[in-house]
Amino acid sequence: MSRGISTFEPERLKQALAARRLSQVQLASMVGVSPSTVSKWRAGQQTPTAEVLERLANVINVGAEWFTRPAFSRGSTPLFRSNASAHVAARSMLEARLDWAREMSEKLEEFVDYPRLNLPERDFRNPEEITDQDIEEAATECRDLWRLGRAPIPDLALAVEGAGVILVREETGVPQIEGLSAWNAVGDRPFILLSADKDNGFRSRFDLAHELGHLILHKHIPKATERERHKLMESQAHRFAGAFLLPQESFLGEIKTPVTLDSLLLSKQRWGVSVAAIIMRLVALDIVSDQEKIYLFKRRSARWGAKSEPYDNSRKPELPRVLRRTIEMLVNEGIITLESIPGHIGLSKSDIEMLAGLPVGYLEGGASVFELATLRRPGTEKKITGGKSPTSPAKVLEFSNRSKC
């Protein structure tokens, strides 16, 4: 009788089921085993044979060896904007995708130095202790640390990645969940995954600032399970996003009263923030009353509809750069080859391309490789084997740590 693979990791199977949004019954049918067998694999009571493991890997679209790697240390649990029970599978899928991004980042970090982490530090242990003033001060400190001044931010994604945050943006198939963020257990580095399902640059910027708020304000606060506590943390992240994107002193200096939708459209284009978010910022700053807010939102819905605004298509979402440029630099420097990247990371070519924001077909050699300026310093001689080997020792490539966007 064939013996199972002794190094099979059940946690990898759980992650794969979540990432592909497959049930145990569906996976069993695709692999050609019984649902009870998959259940035993998942519980660690049984392991697949080498032949079955190959079929399992083909179904999941990962390398067979990936199932034998120790499970990745997750770190903090992401906080989702929607706690609806209907989205349980979607949340599990996005958590798994974020785990894959974190693991890919760590594998690449064997060869590169990412930008130094540069975020305001807060030690809040309970959301109830966070005041509106705390949030305003955290947003101001973040701008000061990044030397952004008080003007509109041209490229928020660039500023966030320059501060050491790893950003991923991909189509998730779950437009109801705009993004999620978490701190990594290894190296204490933060990660943000944004949904690319809605091609709205204004919404995307606010979602990014919202997740940045979670990372700063709620780093030491466990995931909320109670509805009211969850709503409070979400409102705090919203307030941070408004304060960060629309700093009080400079933003209010441009607001004319009485506030009209037409004047807010001008502010939208200047600051890169939707009219709806601007209204909420004006409410937070006591410029617009609750009654005036209701009136403005009714007028907005009557003129433009509930889900769209003029000029929504005028600003494309800002794109992540760090993971993409890391891979491009390693390939250009001859430290790794295109053929060896999937084996080193363990994921499929398509998953790596999506998570890193690479062009489709890049790992097949069908996309252009961009020459990028790099900063080099002596480093590890570790390199990935496979394909054409580099003729010189591996180098550690260091990103310039941008303080301005």
Ordered list of secondary-structure elements with their pairings:
Layout: H1 10-20, H2 24-31, H3 35-43, H4 50-60, H5 88-108, E1 112-113, H6 132-145, H7 156-162, E2 166-170, E3 179-183, E4 190-195, H8 201-217, H9 227-245, H10 248-252, H11 261-271, H12 275-284, H13 290-304, H14 322-332, H15 341-345, H16 349-356, E5 375-377, E6 396-398
Parallel strand pairs: 1-6, 2-4
Antiparallel strand pairs: 3-4, 5-6
Helix pairs in contact: 1-5, 2-3, 6-9, 8-9, 12-13
End-to-end separation = 62 Å
Rg computed from alpha carbons, rounded to a whole number of angstroms: 23 Å
* Subunit arrangement of the protein: single chain
Biggest sheet layout: 3 strands, mixed
DSSP E strands, number? 6
What structural class should be given to the helix and strand makeup?
mainly alpha
Shape: elongated
Helix content: 40-55%
Residues in β-strands, percent: 5-15%
Number of helices: 16
Describe this entry's structure for a reader.
α1 packs across α5, α8 crosses α9 and α12 runs antiparallel to α13. It is built from 16 helices and 6 strands. The protein is mainly α and 405 residues long. The protein folds into 3 domains: 71 residues, lambda repressor-like DNA-binding domains (434 Repressor (Amino-terminal Domain)); 200 residues, no CATH class; 77 residues, no CATH class. The C terminus is likely disordered. The chain is elongated, with a radius of gyration of 23 Å. The strands form 2 sheets. A 3-stranded mixed β-sheet has the order 1-6-5, covered by helices on one side. Strands 2-4-3 form a 3-stranded mixed β-sheet, sandwiched between helices. A hairpin with a 6-residue loop joins β3 and β4. It comes from Billgrantia aerodenitrificans. This is ImmA/IrrE family metallo-endopeptidase. InterPro entries: Cro/C1-type_HTH, IrrE_HExxH, Lambda_DNA-bd_dom_sf, Rad_response_metalloprotease.
